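Explain this fold:

***
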Amino acid sequence: MKNKERSIWLIVTIVLAAALTFSLMSPGSSLQLSSQKNNDYLIRLGRLFDIIEQNFVEDVSPETLYEGAAKGMFESLDDPYSVYLTADDMEDFSDTTTGSFGGVGMFISKQSGKRPEITADSPFRDRYFDFVEVISPIEGSPAYRAGISAGDFIIEIDGESAEGLSTDEVADRLRGEPGTEVSYKIRRLGNIEREITVKREVIEVPTVKYAMIDDETAYLKIVRWTPYTEESVKEAVTFFEKAGYSYLVVDVRGNPGGLLSSVVDTADLFLDDGMIVSTKNRDQIKIEEFKATRRTDVDESIPVILLIDRGSASASEILAGALKDNERAYLVGETSFGKGSVQQISGFGNGGFKLTTSRYYTPSGINIDHIGIEPQKKIKEEELSDDELLSLEKLIENNYIPLFVAKFPDAGESRIYDFIEELKADGIDLEDRLLRRLIRAEINRTENDPPIFDLDYDIVLQYAVDLFESGGYKDLDIFR
């Protein structure tokens, strides 16, 4: 009788889960849960539950079987953003969206879709399709100070392969009590491999950073989309107005996304009319439209340049698409990450789930999933030759720059020049500018409060500032 009751409750639970899932995905759809086909599958699940519970060689709890079945259903969707969440997972997710959590400090994702066939000539990202990728490290975090970069792939955690692990599984293994250590190995373009051991910390996720670059040009870096982003942006704009700004650079490079409501409210600060973003379900039926109101905070007379890169994802791409398509900002940098799906987070039982329920579309009607948003002006660091990549690999493997910065934290121009000459004598064949940029980046990583911007070595920011200072922005159609 007891086992029969368990089977009944399992079937009831699965039916309710299915009903809730489909109601989220297709509001108003006429799903026939009573169909014979659905009933057959649900009955089979109940029988499997009984067979395992009664005959498995070891005792197994109904909760374990239920969570395994729930996880399996979401994994079968082959979507890295749709997952079953345990009670602990739900708590962790709440931490990351509200701005504080414990761990190493990086945002990660995983490629979705059909696994590509791997050959000797396959692109770097294709070869690591089964591994989790770093979208961006959080400034000031252990991962940031250790030199983790966007585009790195995590291939091992504490000596165990990370192949096949989901983003949530990787995140769970990287998190832990502050002060405890975790080791992980990354691989980056050029077949550069590093093993890193860091101590976990309480990670405080900043929302925005801002400063005046000069008397007229304001700089706003949006780090993360949380419930506090809109208010923080408004505070920044008030600061810029008091400083008498004439131009604005908005930087969402390395921003992996966050709350949809946050980016919609923030985009509304720049737009007085027009579409911000719309979402459609699997039947291509438009579910929601988010349009601008007339409550702009950034005056329309202020020209805006938006900086994006491959670490700009999800909500950051919504802002980029909204400002680009509404001709409110000129985009500069690299093509963005390409995450164009929307997830519904719901509590369910003791845990919950995250389910992709729709895709979002820019005001021009484009879904950028797996494609990204193209800037009007593409600027990126020049790609290194094979010989230069070997030099960079040697530079990283031997830890030359971190050791130099640790020994000479206040090194002046003369000492840096001597160090670069020493590197070249040791066979490091890289341009002086690149070496200086790497040294500057390492110095910034060692600081708990790194500079908000680096105009000396940031060529994308340099271009934006020069465009304003020279008056060249006036020749662009968007600012006429």
About this structure: Residues 140 and 458 are 18 Å apart (CA to CA). Residues 1-31 have pLDDT under 50 and may be disordered. The longest strand covers residues 351-361. The chain has 15 helices and 19 strands.
